[in-house]
Design goal:
It contains 14 helices and 9 strands. With about 325 residues, it is an alpha/beta fold. It has 2 domains: about 230 residues, Malonyl-Coenzyme A Acyl Carrier Protein, domain 2; about 70 residues, Alpha-Beta Plaits (2-Layer Sandwich). The strands form 2 sheets. Strands 7-2-1-8-9 form a 5-stranded parallel β-sheet, sandwiched between helices. A hairpin with a 2-residue loop joins strand 4 and strand 5. Helix 7 runs antiparallel to helix 10. The C terminus is likely disordered.
Length: about 325
């Protein structure tokens, strides 16, 4: 197999039924789901396969559900002989990326994301009227100035630097609404409030970050076997457990530097990427970052077969 980088999606990529074809086809995936359920005390298979969507989208449910499907796709890719040379994960997806690099075990990753979902839910419950809004067509510098001006109506800041065309804002609804008005006046092509249950990647997640710091302190972490690009810095995680813990903590209150992370990988010469998990969000963002990069989304058995088929080189006669 060629020099591939694995990209792991986060919240927003979920759908009811995700992972079912992998579960049907692979005994090892059934074992993985059982291990995850034992580790978390959650019937993750039922969440993934049956939902309903109103239950699945709740952050305390969707975080372990997406992570498990990410890890299931990782497992079947490895069974097919596909190994990454580097990895990155969008927000929540960073846990699966660290698992792929041997920093976290499956049980650790699942327990941590289940806990992460609970503490983020708790932090969001104290953030009055918090949410997120995607803005298309304005540069980060301009949006930073807009956030500063809109903060008179409520706290608002940049949450995700997703691509040159898409930046996500986070904060209180008053600030978000004012920022949306200012963004439209400044020429934004589109402003879309997101269906989320809290102001993720904002100062309001500080209590969740404190809780995660305490939880991570008791976790034994392995050394990364491949580079994993950290959301908070857009640089590879060092072989330093404390700095990895700091990265996983700070990503809750700092912006996701996704565009910068992908640019780091592209500048290092990587051109072949696999989106490992549900949905095709990360493939879409990469098209905006670099249309010459190749991204294949693998989320089910059909997509896996297409991907493996595209890698098969016919033997010359």
């Amino acid at each position: 197999m060629s020099d591939v980088v694995f990209l792991f999606p986060g919240q927003g990529s979920q759908s009811v039924g995700m992972g079912k074809s992998l579960w049907d086809a692979h005994a090892s995936v059934k074992e993985l789901f059982a291990e995850a359920s034992d580790a978390t005390g959650i019937d993750v298979a039922r969440l993934c396969f049956e939902g309903p969507d109103t239950v699945l989208v709740q952050t305390e449910n969707v975080q372990p559900a997406i992570t498990l499907v990410n890890l299931a796709v990782l497992q079947v890719l490895r069974e097919a002989g596909v190994e990454p040379v580097a990895a990155a994960g969008h927000s929540l997806g960073e846990y699966a990326a660290l698992c792929a690099a041997g920093v976290l075990s499956v049980a650790q990753a699942m327990q941590l994301v289940a806990y992460r979902g609970e503490v983020m839910k708790e932090a969001a419950s104290h953030a009055t009227g918090g949410g997120m809004t995607a803005v298309f067509g304005l540069e980060a510098e301009k949006l930073g100035a807009i956030c500063a001006e809109a903060s008179e109506a409520g706290s608002v800041e940049i949450a995700n630097h997703n691509s040159p065309k898409q930046i996500v804002l986070t904060g209180e609804l008053g600030g978000l609404q004012r920022a949306a008005e200012l963004a439209k006046k400044s020429g934004a092509k589109l402003v879309v409030p997101l269906k989320v249950s809290g102001p993720w990647h904002s100062r309001f997640m500080a209590p969740a970050a404190d809780s995660m710091r305490e939880r991570l302190a008791s976790c034994s972490l392995g050394s990364p076997t491949i580079p994993v690009i950290a959301n908070a810095t857009a640089q590879p995680y060092p072989d330093d457990g404390e700095r990895i813990r700091d990265g996983l903590t700070s990503q809750l209150v700092r912006p996701v530097l996704w565009q910068q992370s992908m640019r780091h990988l592209l500048d290092a010469g990587h051109r072949d990427f696999v989106e490992v998990g549900p949905g095709k969000v990360l493939a879409g963002l990469m098209r905006d970052i670099d249309r010459d990069a190749r991204v294949t989304s693998v989320q089910d058995m059909d997509a896996l077969a297409r991907f493996l088929g595209s890698r098969t080189t016919p033997i010359p006669n």
